[in-house]
Amino acid sequence: MKQESFSDMEYRSRKKKTKREEFLEIMDEIIPWEEWVSLVVPHYPTGKRGRPPIEIETMLRMYLLQCWFSLSDEGVEDAIYDSYAMRKFMGINFFEQDVPDATTLLHFRHLLEEKGIGKLFFDAINRCLEGAGRMMRGGSIVDATLISAPSSTKNAEKKREEIKSDPQLSAIEYRINRRPGRFPRVSDNAIDWERYIENRKSAVRCKVEHPYRIVKNIFGFRKTVYRGLRKNLNRLHVLFASVNLYMLARVGGSLCPA
User: Fold this and answer.
1) What is the structure's pLDDT at 258?
2) Are 40 and 112 in contact (CB under 8 A)?
3) How far is Cα 235 from Cα 242, in angstroms, rounded to an integer?
4) Is 247 in contact with 214 (CB distance < 8 Å)?
5) Exposed, middle or buried: residue 15 (CB in 10 Å: 0-12, 13-18, 19+)?
6) Which among 35, 75, 123, 145 could bridge 71 via Cys, Cβ 3.0 to 4.6 Å?
7) 76, 5, 34, 79 alpha-carbon torsion, rounded to 10°
8) Considering only CA atoms, which of 79, 37, 54 is closest in space to residue 220?
9) Whole-angstrom Cα distance, residue 60 to residue 76?
10) Are 84 and 133 in contact (CB under 8 A)?
11) Which residues contact 133 (CB under 8 A, 6 or more apart)?
């Protein structure tokens, strides 16, 4: 049993928890820590040479805080020192240890990116969700592929090369929602068919929009923070794995069947 610090005793007497603390308690409970740590173990230093490495779970928790709160390497180190909720999530007692420094986190993040550990997390969560009957697969209704693009997003032909060269993908009609301001005016007695069609498309899209809302509004990921697909793709895999777990926890579900 961990020794309780004076800060723990003081915060335990509070009348209200912050939303950050409630969120971190949910994620601490729902994340399969043992499985995620086991995915990192084959690639992590053993400590046979040099100084002993910091525990994988400690570094993983620090990396997740960085992803969830959209912080830099230095920023998450300072935030853990400053925030009781983050320190509690990390399981750090300042009487016994310090927060891993930004350079240590940088090396750990590069390890995850190089080995594609984020995708392993994402795939592992999806396997459990499918096994528990909580994920349905029947095709794709949204194209959310992460691609490398130039600074200008204008594309006169409206399709990417990998789509045009694929017979099946090139035959798909990609229906993009129009902005409300572009609808033509109709009289009060006429049926606004175009607006009705756009509403039906939106009804389909909304089924997959909620995870993106969590990534953007709760996790603060509104634009890429790294250069290169590998780094950003690893972060997105971690974020969407976290989204699946967070949504499951909110409905009171368990990860895997008993």
Assistant:
1) 46
2) yes
3) 11
4) yes
5) exposed
6) 75
7) -10
8) 79
9) 13
10) no
11) 257
Q: Distance between CA 242 and CA 162 in Å, rounded?
A: 29
What secondary structure, in 3-state letters, does 122-188 show?
A: HHHHHHHHHHCCCCCCCCCCCCCCCCCCCCCCCCCCCCCHHHHCCHHHHCCCCCCCCCHHHCCCCCC
Mean pLDDT of the chain, nearest integer? 81
CA–CA gap between residue 18 and residue 34 (Å, rounded): 27
Answer yes or no: is pLDDT of 138 > 60: no
Both structure tokens of 40: 């990192």
Sign for the CA dihedral angle at 37, 42, 43, 48 comes to positive
Per residue in 102-136, is it b (16+ CB within 10 Å) or e — as a string?
bebbeebbebbbebebbbbbbebbbebbeeeebee
Are the C-beta atoms of 20 and 83 separated by less than 8 Å?
A: yes
The pTM of this model reads 0.76
* Chain Cα centroid distance, residue 204: 23
Whether the per-residue pLDDT at 190 is higher than 50: the answer is yes
